[in-house]
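Example 3.2
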Amino acid sequence: MESEQSPGEMIRNLNDPDIRRDVLLFFVTPSIALVLIFLFPQSEQILEYKARSPTVLGIVGSNLAHRSVSHISNNIVGYWILGGAGYLLMRQSKSAHIYRYTFIAYLLVLPFFASWTILEIFADRPEVISRFESVGFSQTVGAVTGFLAIAIAYYHAEIVNGNKQLPISLGLFSLGFFVAFYNLGVLNNSIRLLAGVGIITLLYMAYRLKESVDALGSPPIVFLLGSAILYLYGLQLLFPPSAPAGIYGHMAGYVWGYLLPIAGIVGVEGYREARNRLSTQTSSADK
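Structure, written as tokens:
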């Protein structure tokens, strides 16, 4: 059963067994694992991902290794802040289970999609493939940033009593895509269209909030606005202006961090609708 506490109360009240379990499993344990791997001698060389000769160990393990103290500390802090915001939003939306399943997919499934994406992006640039090497949990940080678009949409629907989670999340994701490509120096009509979709989404969200008079000025609005600002700030950190080609690893994390949970959500909802339809038809036939 999901908590009905405000986000601030939920953060302070760690006596809630569900919160303690989730924090331990999805935040504390991964952080400890990252530190232990970092302390293991030459772990970054052993687990490094090399696009010119990818291996399963490199694809999965590179996400867990780091090159320096600042590298690992930035990624852990970024994950706790961005991932924590996504978790709290989903918990307040009575959907924390989606974050739990998604995090497991980020560790075991997303790295393979991300590797495929990198190879496709630079398929016609062998000189980049030959040099492309990476390690770091920033791929997962990018993924939870993509997930934050979903979490914000779910929390917005919870506040306004709406059901437009998927379209709103897609609009926020599109806005994030625009910010990323703009910072990377790519700007064309397609990218401008993404910006337009994102702006229309923000306007729609504001309109629905204005309709929900009871919510205006309340703590949920503050938390929603703060999460939206955090989302945009996270994008600035992931895709700084004039970023090197390696930043496309962050892009792959961001894209699949959004697409994987969306595919799961759509699949589960489609299955439930089909099952309910079949149950209704069976009941009608029995009558």
